[in-house]
Design goal:
This protein is mainly beta and 199 residues long. It contains four helices and twelve strands.
Length: 199
């Protein structure tokens, strides 16, 4: 369980493909605090730490994760938003994030708001999935590359988010441009409400 409040970005230092799996080795400031079997969200994808060595840690992504997320596009040197699992004894600053990415979306517009930025993302329209809560609503929550954000101007297949300077500088949002593919996780509360309403 995560909150969508990204701690920092990690840098990919090695990528090894093994059959259908891919092992990603990354470096970040809190490597020495990690433990084997610990969960860490990477661009919003919950992955398990499987090795720690030489100031770096390794996680493994299986085929379904690679197909559903943008992790399969990563290259050595790329920056990945990372967040360790939530500690359940404090304030929930973002929203409830599972680390189970639903799909990817493409950045289709980027506007400079004189100090902040507006990003618009489009994802494939699917009426059946929308009925199950896989959609955005105005002022609702969405996770983009692991970042908890508030939705504005949602449509059937797109939404816009506003990014303040701190988020822009401390996450990989500063690397996102038109055409960039990002991971999105729709709000779990919306999914539950849609499921209950369908009963």
């Amino acid at each position: 369980m995560f909150s969508g409040i990204v701690e920092e970005f990690a840098t990919v230092v090695n990528i090894v493909k093994e059959q259908e799996n891919v092992h990603f080795t990354l470096s970040c400031s809190f490597v020495d605090e990690l433990k084997i079997d610990q969960s860490v969200a990477h661009n919003g994808v919950c992955l398990t730490v499987v090795a720690i060595e030489n100031g770096c840690y390794t996680v493994t992504a299986m085929r379904e994760t690679l197909e559903r997320s943008n992790l399969g596009c990563l290259q050595i040197g790329d920056k990945v938003n990372v967040e360790r699992s939530m500690i359940m004894n404090g304030r929930l600053d973002g929203h409830i994030v599972q680390g189970h990415v639903d799909q990817t979306a493409e950045c289709v517009d980027l506007q400079d708001a004189e100090g902040s930025w507006y990003y618009t993302f489009r994802y494939p329209k699917n009426v059946e999935m929308a009925k199950k809560g896989y959609l955005t609503v105005d002022k609702g929550s969405v996770t983009v590359n692991g970042v908890s954000l508030t939705v504005c101007n949602p449509t059937d297949d797109s939404f816009t988010v506003a990014i303040i300077p701190y988020t822009y500088e401390h996450t990989n949002f500063h690397t996102i441009k038109v055409g960039t593919r990002v991971n999105i996780e729709f709000d779990i509360i919306g999914k539950y409400i849609a499921r209950i309403s369908a009963l």
